[in-house]
């Protein structure tokens, strides 16, 4: 005998499909509420059955034990809101406005009370149920990430943007908007709506100008005469301060860093040296150097050795990094901030080199010093054979997924270790290095032997630490370089920088301690090396062996 209920057929005594779905929904909701109220250890299968209004046998028929029930209903609860509450469409035609609408929806979900309660439970039970802890962030992405993917593909087809990897870009936007508020809320910390809205607009702006390539929002690589300081403006500046931007430094060019969507200026500023030298004793002067660099069109600031944990740089107490944070406080959206993690100098039991613990601590410390929520580029600055590369790559990927780091790079590693790290990233599907930083210059060309071919093949950009030291060259090569600089009417520093700009170098890091040194380096952008002189330099500076 059969019965009808709501137009559906079922065998006598058995629920219809609609009734079964309602029962499942009631059971899931009751289980989640019970776990949240009593905790995992305080919850029993009997209590869940009673809360759901079903018998224990019905509950055990669906879930054989409490652990299976906990994982199943927790994952369902975390994804339920994403399935049921989608972003209203149609979205605005403007890409920025569309992303803002989506970002507000992501933010609302991140601080939703029910989701926050589950996130707190995920933290509390992370040791016992790592799969649940991971799902509290990962499994909630799909619907809105897919919406972002569809939006980006539509605008890419229309020629509005150029996106290297649409899926990855969508995930990064989701993390940039929702990861930090969700993390703070899980620990009971809530920012005001005004602050959240400010961060939201900043994330959209950063995404458009950093992850995506939008020609209309990128700094103008060929500024008009009106954009340059006029003679009257320069004459009006106080004596001794020099021109606002050296005329020879225009125009500043920009390059894509590796195969990423991140555009950086051809010259970068290392802020560590500002903690020493003349500017190091005058905060106003040091900040003035940073502003001078940014006004000249520079965008990439590197705090490496400026107080990174465990590094024995010129500024071990982090003063230069803190100074950098103050200098860019009102200009963060137009700045690309880079820093590094590396082996610690101490010998304590927790000095873990490139361990997960050390990398996380180093990143958190740098973020505090810079007073920012994220780094654009975090570079692994030294090798640590005692820590498995899988752990190191995983730790860096965790920071990317948490939105604390947008891209990762590497520095100063042997070429075989760089290749091995890339292989680990590819095998595990983790964030991949987009750049390599190392010493390179007119008389320091060792990277050309093995590193440059690898970087070209694997799609990594080169950030050089400009070197004027001679490696394997005799006095004749040094003398020839000095003579060439004199012939062109520039310094050897400027000649080396101008030469690097003709090589496969994405950005050159300038380590300066004063405005005068910065002006000298910026002037290299205006130097052109004639073909015959370039050929002569190639002969005298060619690496041996």
Textual characterization of the structure:
The chain is of the alpha/beta class. Helix content is 50%, strand content 11%. It contains 21 helices and twelve strands. It has helices at residues 17-42, 45-52, 56-62, 66-84, 95-110, 113-124, 130-138, 142-157, 166-186, 193-211, 231-236, 283-295, 319-327, 356-370, 389-401, 415-428, 451-458, 475-488, 492-500, 515-522, 531-541, and strands spanning 2-5, 8-11, 254-256, 263-265, 267-270, 300-302, 336-341, 375-380, 405-411, 433-440, 461-466, 507-511. It is elongated and about 95 Å long. The chain starts with a strand and ends with a helix. The model is unreliable at 1-10, 214-249 and 306-317 (pLDDT under 50).
What does the secondary structure layout of this molecule look like, with pairings?
Blueprint: E1 2-5, E2 8-11, H1 17-42, H2 45-52, H3 56-62, H4 66-84, H5 95-110, H6 113-124, H7 130-138, H8 142-157, H9 166-186, H10 193-211, H11 231-236, E3 254-256, E4 263-265, E5 267-270, H12 283-295, E6 300-302, H13 319-327, E7 336-341, H14 356-370, E8 375-380, H15 389-401, E9 405-411, H16 415-428, E10 433-440, H17 451-458, E11 461-466, H18 475-488, H19 492-500, E12 507-511, H20 515-522, H21 531-541
Helix pairs in contact: 1-2, 1-4, 2-3, 4-7, 5-8, 5-9, 5-10, 6-7, 6-9, 8-9, 9-10, 12-13, 13-14, 14-15, 15-16, 18-21
Short description:
This protein has 21 helices and twelve strands.
Structural class: alpha/beta
- Can you summarize the main beta sheet? 8 strands, parallel, barrel
In order across it, which strands form the biggest sheet?
5-6-7-8-9-10-11-12
Proportion of strand residues: 5-15%
Strand segment count: 12
Q: So how many helices?
A: 21
- Low-confidence stretches are 1-10, 214-249, 306-317
Helix proportion: 40-55%
The end-to-end span amounts to 91 Å
Question: Using only CA atoms, what is the Rg?
Answer: 28 Å
Q: How would you sum up the global shape?
A: elongated
Mean pLDDT: 78
């Amino acid at each position: 005998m059969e019965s009808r209920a709501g137009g559906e057929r079922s065998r006598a005594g058995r629920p219809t499909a609609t009734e079964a779905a309602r029962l499942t929904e009631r059971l899931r909701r009751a289980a989640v509420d019970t776990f949240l109220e009593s905790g995992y250890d305080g919850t029993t299968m009997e209590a869940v059955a009673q809360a759901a209004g079903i018998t224990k046998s019905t509950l055990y028929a669906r879930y054989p034990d409490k652990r299976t029930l906990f994982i199943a209903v927790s994952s369902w609860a975390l994804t339920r809101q994403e399935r049921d509450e989608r972003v209203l469409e149609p979205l605005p035609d403007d890409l920025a406005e569309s992303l803002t609408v989506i970002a507000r929806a992501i933010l609302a979900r991140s601080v939703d009370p029910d989701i926050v309660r589950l996130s707190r439970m995920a933290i509390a039970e992370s040791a016992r149920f790592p799969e649940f802890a991971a799902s509290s962030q990962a499994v909630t992405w799909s619907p809105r990430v897919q919406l972002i993917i569809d939006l980006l593909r539509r605008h890419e087809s229309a020629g509005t943007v150029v996106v290297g990897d649409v899926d990855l870009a969508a995930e990064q936007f989701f993390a940039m908007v929702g990861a930090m508020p969700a993390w703070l809320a899980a620990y009971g910390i809530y920012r005001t709506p005004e602050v959240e809205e400010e961060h939201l607009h900043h994330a959209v702006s950063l995404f458009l100008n950093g992850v995506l390539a939008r020609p209309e929002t990128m700094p103008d690589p060929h500024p008009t005469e009106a954009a340059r300081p006029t003679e009257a403006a320069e004459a009006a500046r106080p004596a001794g301060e020099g021109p606002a931007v050296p005329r020879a430094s225009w125009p500043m060019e920009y390059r894509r860093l590796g195969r990423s969507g991140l555009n950086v200026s051809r010259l970068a500023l290392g802020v560590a040296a500002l903690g020493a030298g003349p500017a190091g004793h005058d905060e106003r002067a040091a900040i003035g150097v940073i502003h001078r660099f940014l006004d000249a069109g520079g965008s990439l600031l590197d705090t490496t050795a400026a107080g990174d944990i465990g590094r024995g740089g010129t500024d071990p107490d982090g003063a230069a990094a803190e100074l950098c944070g103050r200098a860019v406080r009102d200009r963060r959206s137009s700045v690309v901030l880079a820093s590094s993690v590396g082996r610690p100098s101490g010998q304590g039991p927790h000095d873990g080199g490139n361990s997960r613990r050390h990398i996380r601590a180093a990143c958190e410390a740098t973020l505090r010093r810079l007073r920012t929520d994220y780094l654009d580029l975090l570079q692994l600055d030294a090798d640590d054979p005692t820590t498995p590369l899988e752990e190191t790559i995983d730790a860096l990927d965790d920071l990317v997924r948490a939105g604390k780091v947008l891209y990762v790079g590497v520095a100063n590693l042997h070429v075989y270790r760089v290749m091995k790290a890339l292989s680990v990233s590819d095998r595990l599907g983790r964030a991949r290095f987009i750049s390599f930083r190392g010493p390179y210059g007119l008389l320091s060309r060792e990277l050309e032997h093995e590193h440059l071919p690898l970087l070209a093949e694997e799609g990594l950009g080169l950030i050089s630490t400009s070197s004027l030291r001679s490696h394997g060259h005799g006095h004749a090569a040094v003398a020839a370089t000095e003579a060439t600089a004199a012939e062109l009417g520039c310094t050897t520093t400027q000649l080396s920088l101008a030469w690097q700009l003709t090589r496969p170098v994405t950005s050159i890091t300038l380590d300066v301690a004063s405005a005068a040194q910065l002006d000298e380096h910026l002037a290299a952008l205006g130097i052109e090396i004639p073909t015959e002189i370039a050929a002569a330099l190639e002969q005298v500076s060619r690496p041996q062996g």
